[in-house]
Amino acid sequence: MKLSITTLFTCLFSILIFAQDGNPTDYLSSDFHKSRRDAFREKMPENSVAVLFANPHSGKPTRSGSVNTAFMLGRSDHSNA
């Protein structure tokens, strides 16, 4: 019984590992993105600036539960001082 449960978990785990075979191939090409940027620039008036915001901070916790994580690079004590 123990062997069959172990074998079942091993098979299921190996299926999950091999289900992700490499990188996705359905990304949009860099030429597509370049053409969209160029089309956007053509619509803008001369000497103008576009500011595009993404994922605004809503004050709600993230999936990890962290809202205001202070990233202190180069510090070994990781304190929020």
How would you characterize this protein structure?
The chain has 81 residues and is mostly helical. It has a domain at 29-53. Helices cover 38% and strands 0% of the residues. The protein has helices spanning 2-18, 30-43. The chain starts with a helix and ends in a 38-residue tail after the last helix.
What is this structure, in a nutshell?
The protein has helices spanning 2-18, 30-43. It has 2 helices and no strands. With 81 residues, it is mainly α.
Let me know the largest β-sheet.
Answer: none
Strand proportion, as a percent range, falls in under 5%
Report the principal-axis shape.
elongated
Number of strands: 0
Terminal CA distance: 55 Å
Mean pLDDT: 75
Low-confidence stretches: none
Radius of gyration equals 24 Å
Count helical runs. Answer: 2
Helix coverage percent = 25-40%
Order of helices and strands: HH
> Structural class of the helix and strand makeup?
mainly alpha
SSE map:
Elements: H1 2-18, H2 30-43
Q: Keywords, please?
A:
81 residues; 38% helix; single chain; mainly alpha
